[in-house]
Specification:
Four copies of one chain form a homotetramer. By secondary structure, the first copy, chain A, is mainly alpha-helical. Chain A folds into two domains: 24-74, Orthogonal Bundle (Arc Repressor Mutant, subunit A); 91-222, Tetracycline Repressor, domain 2 (Orthogonal Bundle). Helices cover 66% and strands 2% of the residues of chain A. Chain A has helices at residues 13-18, 29-49, 56-62, 67-73, 77-92, 106-123, 125-137, 139-165, 175-196, 208-222, and strands at 200-201, 204-205. Chain A has a two-stranded antiparallel sheet. Chain A is elongated. The model of chain A is unreliable at 1-19 (pLDDT under 50). Chains in contact: A-B, C-D. Chain C binds chain D through residues 50, 52, 132-133, 136-137, 142, 146, 150, 170, 172-174, 176-178, 180-182, 184-185, 188-189, 192, 196, 201-202, 206, 210-211, 214-215, 217-219, 221-224, and chain D through 50, 52, 132-133, 136-137, 142, 146, 150, 170, 172-174, 176-178, 180-182, 184-185, 188-189, 192, 196, 201-202, 206, 210-211, 214-215, 217-219, 221-224. The structure holds a DNA duplex.
Chain lengths: 229, 229, 229, 229
DNA sequence: CATGAATGAGAGTTCATTCAT
DNA sequence: AATGAATGAACTCTCATTCAT
């Protein structure tokens, strides 16, 4: 299993590109600059006010341009939001995955992957919250979100099946269903921890490492992996 | 552990009653009938069109009354939605908990509780989806949802601690954090299964019992409960 | 001159009766009681919230009756307001006029009349303010107000002409025009003092007697009446 | 005393500017034109239909623009009314004051000032009537109106005190209270003559000059100024 | 006479989108 | 490419008035 990970947030870039929501980049330098300003402003405003409460005029004001200019680059709020997600994904896609050698024991690999996932989530927490919100509103983004999740679920399912083959995991559980459950557990926890709790649970700060450690142990336990520690 | 359950959906009735969103019931029979008609119509329309796309006029038309009448009973869309939730909760609160005798082994209890939870979820799947949507939009309902979740998490945490005390669960894991993770796993799975997948995963129908069974087994494994089967 | 007086507030009862806004009194005792309750409640609410901001439901609630009942007695907000004015007029019509003997000097008579006028105004200040407001809104009440004013203006004009005939007042001024000016001066002052200033001018309390005295002196001066004091 | 004048209508421009009801002017020429069109249309419609009966749509229709455009320039009916007043004030502030030399006798000065006041009032009679109406409805405008009045009252009070000092006026009367009374007399008369009577009293046309002359004579008499004519 | 639920026309307001400059 | 004024459909909400009970 290469990564523990998230059914709800990553691996979407390829699917993004396929979306009808993205168009060609502007030709001129000036155009690129304006587009970037709009994307930066959009992210800022969305994160501040939420997707629904954001009016296009809020974005253009933040970007110091007119409302007419907006339509030179984006056809709608959805489109700029898709562009923002795509922009952010470059960061999301390089979560600094730990170098994993074949010798590392499976439990360590799981923990390392979960940690990398949490760290990437942390950097984009507000945006992840926005995606969650928009996915509830716009089916297009719901699909997008689902697509990402499925990529992770599939990857983790393969990892689980691999462990079963190597006799390191409970052979009776269905790898795919198990992956759905455990991937969901991790991503939901990240959402609750960073988006809802803003780094806390019930108002008491719990170190991220402890959360990741507990999740990883539960993950390993759930698979009935041999105890290593 | 009396119930396995859901951090996101149940046990909210008491907190609902406290909500500022609810007002006194109408005095006359006729008034009660109209109010009930509005609530039924509201649920129907919300489930059909989603919260945001529903206009008050859609509800009043479905309820065969004028828009003015709506305001006799509710001050806003939020208020009728809160009333709809409260109305549905009576069902949600009696999920037909299985009779559990002291002799039942813990794993069976967990599975029975998870099954009851899934069955209750199924009956109100569309509404649960709506709540998820509204919670992303309206902080009032986010709080409500959180409140419910916390009740379940707390209950499950006590169950986990109990098992630890009886030497039936991994003593090293934190009960509260573990409960957060596993409760989230179950409720998220129910959401994906019923709301997103509409009883399917990836377009292929998987029996609910199988989902519940896998979740329960993962739950038991995660706690390192002794294998029973 | 019998009274100094007001072009804006008194002497309207007869004209009121002619108004289309008043209907027959209810037949039964119970009906009379309800009507009185509505009138009392109406005055209270109008004085508290102003004419425009008062909704009929505010009045019926204050009167502890249903909105349907209102229409048993009044056809509209205007009608109840007319009834309230009529009700109050009985007080306005008996302002406790000082006994004036033929021997009193004219200046004293003027001052006594002005004082009586101010005292009556004071007792009904809020209502006078309301009338002023409603007269600006509803031509029916503007006419009513004008009618009252004219009665006073006419009376005072006759007083002025009488003084001219007796050689006690500037013979060059037109009695009617003069009466308009001086009556307006007094009534406007009362309005500013009681309604706008709430018994003050510029936030500093000035005794009513002083105001009345100044007005009376100006009145006498304006007519070039022989100095008596 | 430079001007006799009105406690209810002039001298408000500075205070207007301070009002929260006014915002920045539009940037472009086109914007200014539209704003001006709205102000002109607003005045026209207000004068035709009265403040309360005017709907925003009446104004935008008169100005040949959409209702959305209205909100580009004004946030409410109050705001456009404030702008209309401010616009009109430039005229109200230059009532063509007569040139007064030091040699003119006080009575002539009073009469000239009163005449100028009446002429300015005449040009803006409908608007003055509106202000009277709105002041009864909206405390913001009541304050505004009061502010203007106070400016005049203060000015006239200083004029009266000056006459007293020069031995030309009854030393026993309080200048401020007297100014309140006489200023009110004049402004009320102007209101009755132009707004209520539309240039008449009781349906018979009386020349404005006669009204002004009578008021001026009463003013001089009231102060016991030496007879000049 | 009293009730209070039901009505529905009508006003204000927002904001994505267009387009002449 | 940029501007920002103009548009107008769409929606919410109020409240005087009616009428069955």
């Amino acid at each position: 299993m290469e990564r523990s990970a998230d059914p709800d947030s990553e691996g979407a870039l390829p699917s993004m590109a396929r979306t009808s929501l993205l168009r060609d980049l502007p030709a001129t330098q000036r155009g690129l600059r304006t587009r970037d300003a709009l994307i930066a402003a959009g992210r800022k405003v969305f994160e501040r006010m939420g997707y629904l409460d954001t009016r296009l005029i809020d974005i253009t004001q933040e970007a110091h341009c007119s409302s007419g200019t907006f339509y030179t680059y984006f056809a709608s709020k959805e489109e700029i939001f898709a562009a923002i997600l795509e922009h952010a994904q470059e960061d999301m896609m390089h979560p600094g995955m730990p170098h994993v050698t074949g010798e590392d024991d499976p439990a360590s690999i799981i923990e390392a992957a979960n940690l990398a996932y949490f760290e990437a989530y942390k950097r984009n927490a507000k945006l992840m919250g926005l995606l969650e919100q928009v996915a509830q509103i716009d089916p297009e983004f719901s699909k997008l979100r689902q697509h990402r999740a499925d990529a992770f679920i599939g990857r983790n399912a393969r990892g689980i099946a691999d462990l079963q083959r190597r006799g390191l995991a409970d052979p009776e559980i269905d790898p795919m269903l198990t992956s759905r459950a455990l991937s969901g557990m991790v991503s939901r926890m990240a959402f609750n921890y960073f988006v809802i709790g803003d780094g806390e649970f019930d108002g008491s700060r719990i170190p991220m490492e402890e959360v990741v450690h507990t999740l990883s142990r539960l993950w390993a336990n759930a698979l009935r992996m041999p105890v290593t520690s």
